[in-house]
Amino acid sequence: MSIELESQESTVALRFDWTVEELRDIHNLPLNELLFEAQRIHRMFHDPTKIQKCTLLSIKTGRCPENCGYCPQSAHHDAEVDDHGLLDVDGVLAAAKEAKEAGSSRFCMGASWRDAPKNDQFDQVLEMVRGVKDLGMEACCTLGMLTDDQAKDLAEAGLTSYNHNLDTSEEYYDKVVTTRSYQERLDTLQRVRESGVSLCTGGIIGMGESIDDRMSMLVTLAEHDPHPESVPINMLLAMPGTPMADLPPVDSFEMVRMIATARIAMPNSRVRFAAGRVELSHETQALCFMAGANSIFTGDKLLTTPNPDENQDEVLLSKCGLQGEA
Ligand code: SAM
Ligand code: DTB
Ligand code: SF4
Question: Average of pLDDT values for 54-73?
């Protein structure tokens, strides 16, 4: 199945039936060929001088009942995070305003829940979403699994996008987390889609998975029709106290290849270079932008871990001649 989309330069088929073999062949192209193809596709759908700046805030941190092997917030591991319950609405909106003043166009609120709560805490989250929208920013949440009704309520509050990552391939999933199934993840994505909120879903590289696992995850992401509005690609931050603490760092060229392959598989999605920039040189990050990443998290912190500081990011974007989206 494919759809021909007109663009200014030519047409390209948006495909929902990629195979692991096809994506592996793309992923393993000589680097110049891969980057050229990714850039060719990128420019058909996106302004190559623009980048989306998103700011994250952990609105509820730690003590999560899930056992995701990468995550410092899981109650199953001994990682140190500053646990706190749901932040109050005013504090969250003050942080959103600050992010906007620093040039961010999207505010993403993350909570360490297995599923979004069904009490007044959920009403407070809805109020946060409305408040962020009133500031003129895009609002994104990541709260764990949702019911149909919760997805509808978030849509009514004006939520722009819901983040819910597949994290890895279906085949590798039980090496990463066993307290929930891949199908549960897909079901929440389906509910979000039916509510009319756009999907933000991607994954992590560097958890011991194979290249084929990464390609398999991209195949599943790209089976969504339309493709997810945004696709975050994270490099594992191997956090002390988690079962993945001792995994070797992923080679940065693998991140470049992963981003380029995601760009080619899902041409009009935003590909976000999410966690992991803090480890990389400006040159490597520039290669990731060339490979088709057109969204980043800015601000000094991701959820619980450091992000490059804002001055450094300003230098990076200015060296690359990239401007934040309005
Ligand atoms: N509890 C919700 C959930 O799991 O959907 C939302 C928050 S959760 C922290 C959001 C995403 O952050 C995860 O799906 C994972 O992809 C990413 N993440 C968490 N810890 C990470 C780490 N150590 N390195 C890279 N990415 C990480
Ligand atoms: C995503 O894909 N990455 C972000 C966001 N979506 C929620 C989170 C990264 C978290 C990194 C570890 C931390 O700071 O706790
Ligand atoms: Fe909980 Fe989300 Fe961390 Fe998994 S990734 S342990 S669900 S906060």
Answer: 97
Q: Which domains does the chain have, with CATH numbers?
A: 30-320 (3.20.20.70)
Determine the longest span between alpha carbons in the chain, in angstroms. 54
The 10 Å CB-count burial string (b at 16+, else e) for 228-250 is bbbbbbbbbbbbeebbbeeeeeb
Task: Please state the pTM of the whole predicted model.
Answer: 0.95
DSSP letters spanning 80-99: ----B-PPPHHHHHHHHHHH
Q: In Å, what is the CA distance from 224 to each residue of 11, 213, 264?
A: 20, 18, 15
- CB-ligand 2 contact for 62 (6 Å cutoff): no
| E runs forming strands in the chain | 2-6, 11-15, 50-60, 106-111, 138-142, 161-163, 198-200, 203-205, 230-235, 270-273, 295-297, 323-324
pLDDT, mean over the chain: 95
Contact 124, 86 (CB under 8 A): yes
Q: What is the rounded distance in angstroms from the CA atom of residue 14 to the CA atom of residue 272?
A: 19
Give the ligand 2 atom nearest the CA of 274. 3
Confidence of residue 259 (pLDDT cuts 50, 70, 90): very high
Task: Please indicate whether residue 234, judged by its CB atom, sits closer than 6 Å to ligand 3.
Answer: no
d(CA 230, CA 271): 6
Q: Which of 15, 54, 106, 140 is the catalytic position?
A: 140
Alpha-carbon dihedral of residues 217, 71, 155, 292, nearest 10 degrees?
-50
Predicted local distance difference test score (pLDDT) of residue 1: 44
Are 114 and 64 a contacting pair, CB within 8 Å? yes
